[in-house]
Amino acid sequence: MDIITAGRTGPNRSVRFGGDPVLDERGRSSVLRLAASVTRSVDTCGPEISTRETAELLGSTPDLVVDDALRTLDVGTWAGRTPEDIDPAELGGWFADPGARPHGGESVSDFVDRVHAWRAAQTRHGDRCVVVAMPVAQALLCTDAGRFFAHEVRPATLYTCADV
């Protein structure tokens, strides 16, 4: 399965949690540069504006599936905030415990389980090309919630997941 992360947005640039912003100019440019190395048509994307824009710029199939199961991690009350805006104990606890939900949104465990359930339900693994938000790519690439933060991903980047 080819996994492509959406291009950069304003919150990526300023390191903010959550939101559903459009691609910024640098994000659009990097997606267009990436298009030269993408050999499959994008057939599925997450519901965020940036994932849909990225899929369109990459030449998605006419029957592109926008799949809500690939929506990004719900960070609840942290949406729009920077890490510096959050109580360090809450932030540290969230990074340390995949089951923690100090923001009132989705725990990393629940999120990874949701994304892995989507992956397990796919019948055409090898020839898939999906565009997702960066946290979704992390979840697709990790083996379990405890390894979620071990996978660093970047905007507008192609990852191949051989075991999917």
CATH superfamily grouping: Phosphoglycerate mutase-like
CA-atom Rg in angstroms: 15 Å
Q: So what's the CATH class?
A: Alpha Beta
What composes the largest sheet? 5 strands, mixed
Oligomer: single chain
Global outline: globular
Note poorly predicted spans: none
Protein name: Fructose-2,6-bisphosphatase
InterPro entries: His_Pase_superF_clade-1, His_PPase_superfam
Pfam families: His_Phos_1
Organism: Gordonia terrae C-6
Layout of SSEs?
Blueprint: E1 2-5, H1 10-14, H2 25-34, E2 44-45, H3 49-57, E3 65-66, H4 88-96, H5 108-121, E4 129-132, H6 134-141, E5 158-160
Parallel strand pairs: 1-4, 2-3, 2-4
Antiparallel strand pairs: 1-5
Fold and architecture overview:
- The protein has six helices and five strands.
- By secondary structure, the chain is of the alpha/beta class.
- The protein has one domain: Rossmann fold, CATH 3.40.50.1240.
- The termini are close together.
- The relative contact order is 0.24.
- The mean pLDDT is 90.
Keywords:
164 residues; alpha/beta; 5 strands; five-stranded mixed β-sheet
Concise structural overview:
This is Fructose-2,6-bisphosphatase. This protein is an alpha/beta fold and 164 residues long.
